[in-house]
Batch of 3 targets.
Target 1
Amino acid sequence: SIVPSFLFPFKSYNRYGDVMLYWIIGMNILGFLLMGIDKIKARRHAWRIPEINLFLCAVAGGAVGCTLGMFMFRHKTKHWYFRIGFPLCILLNVLSLYLLKKGL
């Protein structure tokens, strides 16, 4: 593996470990960017990113990026389902990675 283990503590030690690492990094970057783009679009009263897409990104591994984007851009912070849902997605992401590492 070319990725240091301290960068991804839940990394599996099989050939799919690096793929999972890059997936998680990519989804978190995407989630962060989606929150920023949606904030810009909201200010301009333009077409918006559907909320379901933001949650799908969070569930698919980008919950940390979505949560950071939510607070950095001060976007969707008044909606209880984002304030509670994104942190729950973080727990779901961590649990999923743990179970993947254990092989369950």
Target 2
Amino acid sequence: MYKFFSAKQFAMVITFLILTFSNLILGNGKGSLTGKVIDKTTKQPIQYVNVVVIGTSLGAITDSTGKYWISAVDENIYQLKYSLIGYSSTIESEIRVINGKS
């Protein structure tokens, strides 16, 4: 019997295929928003910040490193609202989402 691929090559091909098609399957051609929230004064990440895409039902909460990820966002230009008790809410404008990008 002939071997076309070694086990390592086969694993690399499968990984490549999964990564290539996962965005098409999971994202349905939509984009995502990612970011990190830090304190202006201390420059430290802030956890548990509510991040909301204004005008949609989409949002996320920052993790322990201040990072957030919002998936399946339609292509458009949005505003993001950041809020947390003890901080003033902030709105960031002109956030452009492009299909298939983050």
Target 3
Amino acid sequence: MIIMMGALLQKEPPNLTDKGKEIFAVMNRNREHYYYHSFKELAYDLFLRENIIRAADLLSKANAEFNVFSQSRFNPRYWTKTLRGYVLKPDVKPDEAITDIFRNGKEY
């Protein structure tokens, strides 16, 4: 359930997308308590949750696979593998490297 400024919030905020309305309804039915100080704070949380779901859907469609680090793969045009992780190549824009994960998921 959603608590706004100490009171149970039953009416959804205005201007939600369909997915935002769905998330709001699930949160409101949940036994877990979600506390917010303002509609702005709630709207941000709903926006964030919606975009996490969208990114997860896109990543799923990209056919990227998760593996232990020692067997992990990457696109060498964007990343350098080090002992502790991946480092973005100096001449690469971060948004292009992240977008590549979604576009060329099989390379990851």
